[in-house]
Amino acid sequence: MKRHCFALDLKDDEVLIEAYKTYHKNVWPEIIASIKDSGIEALDIYLVANRLFMIMEVNDTFSFEKKNEMDLNNPKVQEWETLMWKYQQALPAAKPGEKWMLMDKIFELQII
């Protein structure tokens, strides 16, 4: 399995951050299905202050192109993404329209 890590900010507002966390305690079943159907085996989101970190573990069937195409053709995913954007804001280095930014791994320690 391969791991991908991403970052994104939330709007720096405690009420909005709490609402975002509440949505993620009960993610819509269609969103969970779309994640699983794309080849994502595990997905975790962490929060510190208003910065989000997402860690995805994917199987060999996953590709960013396939996931993007699936999401664009899924009205429920589009509805979820529109809703979540009310709470999210792009990182300062993001390109126009870019949300979750793929992070570069700069260190790895493996203990055998």
From TrEMBL:
Superkingdom to which the source organism belongs: Bacteria
One annotated GO molecular function is: racemase and epimerase activity, acting on carbohydrates and derivatives
Q: Would you tell me the protein name for this molecule?
A: L-rhamnose mutarotase
| Classification lineage | Bacteria, Pseudomonadati, Bacteroidota, Flavobacteriia, Flavobacteriales
